UniProtKB/TrEMBL annotation:
One of its GO terms (cellular component) is cytoplasm. It comes from Candidimonas nitroreducens. Pfam families: Amidase_2 (PF01510). GO terms for molecular function: metal ion binding; N-acetylmuramoyl-L-alanine amidase activity. The lineage of its organism: Bacteria, Pseudomonadati, Pseudomonadota, Betaproteobacteria, Burkholderiales. Belongs to the N-acetylmuramoyl-L-alanine amidase 2 family. This is 1,6-anhydro-N-acetylmuramyl-L-alanine amidase AmpD. Its main location: cytoplasm. SUPFAM superfamilies: N-acetylmuramoyl-L-alanine amidase-like (SSF55846).
């Protein structure tokens, strides 16, 4: 499910890395660190990203997370200069997935955020970036990979909720946006409504 036509399930090893296979690539990011108190993540956070905005298929997102982005390659990119961010996973439009940070480690994806009254969601969450924007439907292949990835993560970690970046960073972030089908995602992955954002499903 990590690439078109690939029906094999995704799986995480004991260190929190996906097992390599078709459509799965590991690209360790330096933008990560240990979770405080070795907490086992219990929140899944969904994002979207495209660089430059609205452009799909390039290497810019990967380059950003690996601190090697060519800021001069597009007029929009210099505003990201010096930014040090990452996510655990990046799901491309074709369903391919790149993992940047082990799920047992803290990726730098949520920023100023809160969930159930607890701040600093990076400490206790796993972040998945979907290649996309707030204004375009996500691809069928992305939903398939997201489902496979969600199953793998729920097998490995005690995840009890899946929220969007927009829900944990109210007024600051808008992703994954109105084009993400929360009802479908919940149905395909067995999330009860109480485990998804208010109004989802």
């Amino acid at each position: 499910m990590a690439a078109a036509g690939d029906t094999r399930p995704l799986a995480l090893d004991r260190h929190g890395w996906l097992r390599p296979g078709p459509g799965v690539r590991l690209a360790p990011s330096p933008n990560q660190d240990a979770r405080p108190g070795s907490v086992d993540p219990y929140l899944l956070v969904l994002h979207n990203i495209s660089l430059p905005p609205g452009v799909f298929g390039g290497s810019e997102v990967e380059d950003l997370f690996l601190n090697r982005l060519d800021y001069d390659s597009h007029p929009w990119l210099p505003r990201l200069r010096g930014l040090r961010v990452s996510a655990h996973f990046f799901v491309r439009r074709d369903g391919g997935v790149i993992q940047f940070v082990a799920s047992t480690r803290r990726a730098w994806h949520a920023g100023v955020s809160a969930f159930e009254g607890r701040e600093r969601c990076n400490d206790f969450s796993v972040g998945i970036e979907l290649e996309g924007t707030d204004f375009e439907p996500y691809a069928e292949a992305q939903y398939a990979t997201l489902a496979a990835l969600t199953r793998a993560l729920r097998t490995r970690h005690p995840l009890r909720a899946a929220w969007g970046h927009e829900h944990i960073a109210l007024g600051r972030k808008t992703d994954p946006g109105p084009c993400f089908d929360w009802a479908r995602y919940g149905r395909e992955n067995g999330w009860p409504r109480r485990q998804m954002p208010p109004g989802a499903g």
